[in-house]
DNA sequence: TAACTATAGCACTTTTAGGTAAGTTATTGT
DNA sequence: ACAATAACTTACCTAAAAGTGCTATAGTTA
């Protein structure tokens, strides 16, 4: 028996409710990317926050980390099936922002 | 001429990319609510964060603050048209979390 | 042999988010 | 007279998030 009542958005916010996670996930929608390439696509993120963000996304099963045993290191990040299920939401978020009036007028 | 390139999700994240904003907005989807009622619907939020959150949402034109000049005070919050345009996204976020497997199995 | 590479970890500091408790308001009911 | 009320506001403090700079790795190329 579960005594905790359902709290709207609670689960979702715990998984992707941070500043960087949706942005990182968004850039993986078109396919896996090398670590450095992905990081460059996220303007303003620090090295530390990037690592921390993808680590959490990996822990939560939203992204997959593929390590190639070469030197210098090569690591790719891609969406898992669970991560891909966010596609609609991520595209909606982006297109909302792109179409929102204040984005154009200010 | 605008020299800044378009950064996906940047605008969206600036407006609603915090822990509390999506939750507050979600609870207003069915119509305006009195301040106290709305706050009770957001579990775990402190009085201070609630006030701060709705103030920012108001500043950004996503919610409307309606003050009734009575004593004791009566204040209602409702979505603006701009706020209502988030409806699809908010519902998607909620239903994603509700259907996400790990939410059931863990 | 020394520099370069891509990725990430670590220690340290700063910045921001957030919590707690108190005070403010003006009218109504006791 | 005074307590109760709803919605804040402020001051003060702690905890969490995030930035900065340094380190390690090991094979390839100059």
From TrEMBL, chains A, B:
PROSITE patterns: HTH_HXLR. Keywords: DNA-binding, Transcription, Transcription regulation. GO terms for molecular function: DNA binding. Residues 7-105 form the HTH hxlR-type domain. The keyword Transcription applies. Transmembrane segments: none annotated. It comes from the Bacteria. Coiled coil: none annotated. This is Transcriptional regulator, HxlR family.
């Amino acid at each position: 028996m579960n005594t905790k009542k359902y709290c709207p958005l609670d689960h979702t916010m715990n998984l992707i409710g941070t500043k960087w996670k949706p942005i990182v996930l968004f850039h993986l929608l078109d396919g896996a990317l090398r670590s450095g390439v992905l990081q460059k696509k996220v303007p303003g993120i620090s090295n530390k926050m990037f690592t921390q963000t993808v680590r959490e996304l990996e822990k939560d099963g939203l992204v997959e980390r593929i390590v190639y045993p070469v030197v210098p290191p090569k690591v790719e990040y891609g969406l898992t099936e669970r991560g891909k299920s966010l596609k609609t939401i991520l595209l909606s978020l982006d297109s909302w922002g792109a179409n929102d009036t204040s984005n154009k007028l200010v």
